[in-house]
Amino acid sequence: MWPSVARESSLTFHCWLPISRRQAFEFLSDARHLERLTPPWFRLLPLTPLPVEMEIGRTIDYLLRWRRLPLRWRSRVTAWDPPRRFTYEQEHGPYRLFRHDHLYRARNGGTAVVEEVSFAAPGGWLMHKLLVEPELRRIFTFRQQVLERLFDREGGSGPALGHDELVSQAIDASRLVVRRGRIEGPFETDARRRGEALAPEEPEEVEVVPGHLGP
Question: Is residue 3 a part of any domain in this protein?
Fold first, then answer.
């Protein structure tokens, strides 16, 4: 018999960026970049005045539009260790539980970014498996794809993509396939494959200065 309440689950996503750990940490901890990294079908707009000075205990309010349904979301920073890690957790919002851990490791002259999402969906097991988990996979696959293409473009090592083309390619990459009972995006598969070949963390970071990273 299916459980009436979904248990806590976790998803892990990886990408590698050709910038220093400090630069990756500063970019991803800045709430001004959230809209840029969020897919158009899942709008997440900060309501707290920006920029936000991040620290443990800091709360940020958002307006979330999911399938045209407006929702309020408040998150709290529960771990802050620049440039290694930061974590925020839902204080008020649509999930029974939501925690987003960001880890940064110096790898191969750049930074390996590991994002772990722990969550418990409202409703039961069916809503968790058929709606919430697949949607989170799509959202974070989109996010990782935009990050890779954004820094590749702005770092000068790839073609110059316009915003519409960038979003279009990220949406294509976030389309899901079902393989042997589990759902995953193509980018997550590629990232996992690359992650297995990464060298141990480098003791010293190599500073790579990309182009302008602001919104």
Answer: no
**Confidence category of residue 42, pLDDT binned at 50, 70, 90:** confident
Examine residue 51 and say whether the peptide bond preceding it is cis (omega within 30 degrees of 0): yes
Output b/e per residue, 167-202; b: 16+ Cβ within 10 A: beebbebbeeeeeeeeebbebbebbeeeeeeeeeee
- Across 19-32, average pLDDT: 95
DSSP secondary structure letter of residue 87: E
- Specify the long-range contacts of residues 44-53, CB closer than 8 Å, at least 24 apart: 44/73
For residues 106 and 41, the model is more confident at: 106
The tally of domains found in the chain comes to 1
* Omega prior to 40 cis, within 30 of 0: no
Instruction: For residue 194, give Cα distances in angstroms to 5, 13, 16, 197.
Output: 36, 12, 9, 5
Only one residue has tokens 């794809």, namely 145
CATH of the domain at 32: 3.30.530.20
Give the separation between CA 210 and CA 197, rounded to whole angstroms: 25
> 104 forms bridges with which residues in the sheet?
113
CA nearest to 201, candidates 106, 124, 116: 106
Q: In the predicted model, what is the mean pLDDT of residues 19-40?
A: 93
Question: Read out DSSP for 6-64?
Answer: PPPEEEEEEEEESS-HHHHHHHHT-GGGHHHHS-TTEEEEE-S-SS----TT-EEEEEE
